[in-house]
């Protein structure tokens, strides 16, 4: 196996741009008609998704900050 250097920050930025921005620009340029999205309020849907993700993130962090250390301490005390 070759000793490879990690990619530089600029290379990572260019790769991210190519993987994310270019497809978004293509979709905006092509303007496909998506019949499933007609009549759907995208602003409300997106804000609901963000709210749900926020609640799950808070719950996940609470689990890692409060419940998991207590459970791990209880396991260690039993051993």
Structural class: mainly alpha
Q: Could you give the order of the helices and strands?
A: HH
Main beta sheet strand tally, sense and closure: none
Tell me how many strands there are. Answer: 0
Low-confidence stretches: none
Write down the Rg.
Answer: 22 Å
Shape, per Cα inertia axes: flat
Contiguous helical run count? 2
Distance between the termini: 42 Å
Content of β-strand = under 5%
Percent helix, as a range, is over 70%
> What's the overall average pLDDT, rounded?
88
Q: How many discrete structural domains?
A: 1
Description:
- The protein is mainly α and 79 residues long.
- It has one domain (9-31, 41-78).
- Helix content is 75%, strand content 0%.
- It has two helices and no strands.
- It has helices spanning 9-30, 42-78.
- It is flat and about 60 Å long.
- The relative contact order is 0.05.
- The model has no long low-confidence stretch (mean pLDDT 88).
Topology, element by element:
Blueprint lengths: L8 H22 L11 H37 L1
Outline:
Helices cover 75% and strands 0% of the residues. It is an all-alpha fold and 79 residues long. The two termini are 42 Å apart.
What are the key terms here?
2 helices, 79 residues
């Amino acid at each position: 196996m070759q000793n490879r250097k990690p990619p530089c920050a600029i290379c990572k930025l260019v790769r991210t741009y190519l993987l994310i921005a270019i497809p978004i620009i293509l979709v905006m340029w092509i303007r496909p008609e998506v019949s499933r999205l007609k009549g759907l309020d995208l602003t409300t849907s997106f804000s609901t998704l963000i709210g749900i993700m926020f609640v799950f993130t808070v719950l996940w962090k609470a689990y890692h900050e409060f419940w998991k250390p207590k459970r791990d301490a209880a396991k260690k005390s039993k051993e």
